[in-house]
Amino acid sequence: MGGNPDFFYREAQRLGYVARSAFKLIQMQKQYKIISPGGSVLDLGCAPGAWLQVACQNLGPLEKGGAVVGIDTTKVKVPPQHCDSRVKTVCGDVMKLPREQVRALSPKQKGFSVILSDMCPLVSGITSRDAALSVELGMRALDLSVGTAAAVNNAPQEADSDSSGAALDTGRLLKPGGHLIIKLLESEDIKEFNQTCKPLFRKASWLRPKATRSCSREIYLICQGLL
Hints:
It comes from Salvia divinorum. The protein is of the alpha/beta class.
């Protein structure tokens, strides 16, 4: 019964989630333990807010600290259920926002332990075009997270030191050991995408969550443990 899209829609209403997509992140969290108590989460393409809810639920009690920051081109109101004062949203275009402006939204401006990209292009129905736009959004999420060009070439990057003396990579928004989830539309191009991510993370896996509609071509790349 659990695979029926109507089931997830009804469950979302029953449990107070603003969209059925909440169950996609719930499944990822159960399988991969992406979000840890007190973590800092960046949610790219956060509308309508269901992933904000799930992320906040996994931060643990308020005294654990942590933060969830959502960015979307539309103004997103923080859902009253399952969210607390640790959740905030920003209206902006991820494709244009400077990296440092996004970093400034993170706790102590030190980056995020988890970056989620549920961004999706405005689907035109032209399969190849939609897939290409999806890859473009995915590459932007990867670039913000790891500073792709430098990371792919394994070039040394600028580093700051925090109070513990550890090097902080200023070209990256994702902290060392951090996790990245990127939504893509299935196409030939995504194999190449996977090859780009594999050397940067401890593990990269594909997942098509149970709550995905049967007609959808979306698939998620789960990148664990930034090296």
